[in-house]
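step 4 of 6: structure.
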Amino acid sequence: DVKVTQSSRYLVKRTGEKVFLECVQDMDHENMFWYRQDPGLGLRLIYFSYDVKMKEKGDIPEGYSVSREKKERFSLILESASTNQTSMYLCASSPGGWGVRYEQYFGPGTRLTVT
Amino acid sequence: KNEVEQSPQNLTAQEGEFITINCSYSVGISALHWLQQHPGGGIVSLFMLSSGKKKHGRLIATINIQEKHSSLHITASHPRDSAVYICAVLTISSGSARQLTFGSGTQLTVLP
């Protein structure tokens, strides 16, 4: 079974703090994604990576950065947390290539509260 | 206009009822996913469809590619079906990577 793990289930941070959210997958997937999920807005893509050291902006990258130094690990960084970044953050991974069934595997999520 | 629209946003049903959730989309490359999210956050994939109909237990998913519309049906609903159901359409990023564009989800509550 594919396993995607996230470093924390719940996190409380203060405004202005630097926040790191870590995601690790164990299936050698090429693609990894960071989403935030807010009521009524659904899942919105922040950033994704299709290879080590490669990244691409999603729909809402402002206020976030990412790092992918190893294939299995994808980090989301909030340089200076703000209250409007209070949300559920979900990481996902998927295989690359075009010859395989496409599916994303999700981590359990991190509920971040910025006070 | 949202690229992937779901209806209804919220749905409450009595145990045993037949349930339908709809998804219309304006983007995508002819593959659509239905996902389930239980309280606590975990998301699991239910179906991937590119044509016709798929059935898994009490769940049935249909898709009409020409009309860009899909439905998820639950027969003989049960309280354990209570969850958020999300449809997502396969799209291509500017970097030519496959990714999903999501609807906002349907919160289903099945009462005993």
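step 5 of 6: annotate
 - The first strand of chain A starts at residue 4 and ends at 6.
 - Chain A touches chain B through 26 residues (CB under 8 Å).
step 6 of 6: archive
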